[in-house]
Amino acid sequence: MRMSSAVLSTRYRTAFVTGASTGLGHAFTEMLLAGGVEVWGTSRDPKRLTAREKFHAVALELGDGAEAENVFLAAESAAGGFDLVINNAGFGAFGAYAHTDFSVWEAQFGMMLVNTARLSHAALRGMLARRRGALVNISSIAGEFGMPYQAVYNATKAGLSALNESLMYELHGTGVIVIDFRPGDYRTDFDGSVRRPPQAAALAADAVNTVRMARVWAAFVGMMQSGPAPAHAAASLRRALLRGRSGTVRTGRFFQAVLGPFLARFGSLSLRRRVQEKYFGL
Ligand SMILES: NC(=O)c1ccc[n+]([C@@H]2O[C@H](COP(=O)([O-])OP(=O)(O)OC[C@H]3O[C@@H](n4cnc5c(N)ncnc54)[C@H](OP(=O)(O)O)[C@@H]3O)[C@@H](O)[C@H]2O)c1
Hints:
Structural class: alpha/beta
Largest sheet: 7 strands, parallel
Mean pLDDT: 94
Low-confidence stretches: none
Distance between the termini: 43 Å
Helix content: 40-55%
Oligomer: single chain
Strand content: 5-15%
Bound molecules: NADP nicotinamide-adenine-dinucleotide phosphate
């Protein structure tokens, strides 16, 4: 059934979307604008955001949690409150865990888990005061199916999903909903923007590990580049927003959105690991 675009804006008048310049965040923004929602969208460089009607470009660096919260609160006050907040900004870092300087992992935990949780906290304070709103945190299938050499990315997404799960219980009956949105691989700029930090010299001497890393990287890029377009994820999110209740949304190609979660639920952990190892050629 095709739902009218007018319905979205009757439920959600204003929205805040982090990482609106590219990929999924850009597609979410387009979907919301098409539905008549007024959007405050962020980028570290607002010149990357296209000016259009009902769109407000916001400069936001999520690496600095206190500053990001101040930026959010200023936008919230200008908007007169947000009915919808989508914490989408994120990045990948690919490297062998022990051979990558820990500052890389610390920065990723800080931005993608701690500061995203901080923006969620700020968003919920406003929503609960108004007794209405939807918080959407963009997690990932990687929180359930960890990818090798992206250990901290997987950990941040698993942590975010766990946070969302608790919030769903806490917020039951308050008029505020939480959506744990878990995409599979989508064709965005994500693989292009994945950081590949320098690896410790010990890794270069480890030929087996170097070959494994190259295989995993090739599988990862292949999956990203053959994934559905971001508009597909935006359509899934739109359906969830129109349902208007808390929940987990898995989206992507069939085997990531349906088959994988089925395996995670009913298969054993060792079977799941065997499937992953085979897939990544480990
Ligand atoms: N693509 C996928 O297959 C996939 C799958 C599962 C989950 N996800 C998740 O979906 C979200 C969006 O990913 P994407 O694929 O759309 O990636 P993308 O195209 O690389 O977009 C990432 C967005 O995050 C923003 N960003 C990055 N670092 C930032 C920082 N330090 N401070 C503020 N903003 C920052 C970027 O904005 P600027 O560069 O303009 O500042 C950009 O708009 C991420 O959380 C990702 O983990 C993606």
